[in-house]
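Researcher: We are triaging several targets before committing to wet-lab work. For this one, the compound of interest is magnesium ion. I'm pasting the protein sequence and the ligand SMILES. What I need is the predicted three-dimensional arrangement of the protein with the ligand bound, expressed as structure tokens, so it can go straight into our comparison scripts without reformatting.
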Amino acid sequence: MGGPSSEREVSLATGRVILNALDKTKYNLTPVTINKDGKWLLPPPDRKFLSGDENKEEKSLVALETGNAIDKLKTERGADVVFIAMHGTYGEDGTVQGFLEMAGVPYTGSGILASALAMDKLKSSELFLFHGLKVPKYLNFSNKQWNKDKDKITTKVSEKISLPCVIKPSNCGSSVGITIVRKIDDLENAVQLAFSYDDIVLAQEYISGVEVTCAVLDEGGDKEPIALPPTQIIPKDSEFFDYHAKYTPGATEEITPPRLPAEIINKIQENALQVHKIIGCSGMSRTDMILGGDGKLYVLEINTIPGMTETSLLPQAAAAAGISFPDLLDKIIQAALNKRKSL
Ligand SMILES: Nc1ncnc2c1ncn2[C@@H]1O[C@H](COP(=O)(O)OP(=O)(O)O)[C@@H](O)[C@H]1O
Ligand SMILES: [Mg+2]
């Protein structure tokens, strides 16, 4: 948990909740926090340290480089599986997955390619389009292109995408760096903000409609992935599902399953399954979509490590399907072990 990404705080919350919920009679846990410099902080082997707060516990923790830490976890602590509770770059984008893959240590969630593709909104959108799914119309440009052709890109955005439009970094999460631009004069600031998180920025058509998200649980082995009940998202005091709406208790109304006709719910679940398979995810995923006013379902993105505090969307969806939070975690761990067996 933790890590250097802009979603560090969310990850620490996810990690703490997972540590508390995991069945201690079943698992021997070693909480590992990764600091902002990418060092892995390991508790002493004899300590049942479960707070996950490295500031409080710093003195008793051993800070190690990634490779050394994984080696120690494998050889000295006998780690059978790593539960990755990180979001965003480094933890959710295939980077940590690559390290664990090289060390031969099973880990939860998707592999390197699926993690990297899912993190990249431009590349994943291209794949969704290739497979016939609908995505909001978009333009993409690099920081270099923007600095060279700012005026041309601005004209293109207003002509081809039209306003309002959504400016977002290609690689990010938790709505960090995203702005809805309603006046062309606001474009420059929105683009600069997005470039502070990634070198590639998307200008997307704004889809007004019903926002939904749908999780897929994929235990692997001989089990087929299943779509959980979707959730409708209604931010109460934000213009979109921004950071505040995501992480402030009570700031968003979340309805599982949405008050929508059964055939639309089915379509949302089918889309989520298709997106999960196109990207090649394992364990779990959660696809964000908007049901447009035109009745079409637009795919915004897929998350390979969705938030996992008890009030987060994936645990809520699991609960609606009759799967308790500890059971959900067991299934995610089982998926990691199944993947290992099928190698
Ligand atoms: N094209 C769009 N039209 C309307 N709203 C959007 C669009 N893109 C993003 N949003 C809003 O921004 C939020 C975050 O966007 P998303 O693409 O899911 O990125 P993130 O990885 O930050 O969650 C969405 O949940 C939605 O509320
Ligand atoms: Mg999202």
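Researcher: Any quick observations?
Model: The chain has a mean pLDDT of 93.
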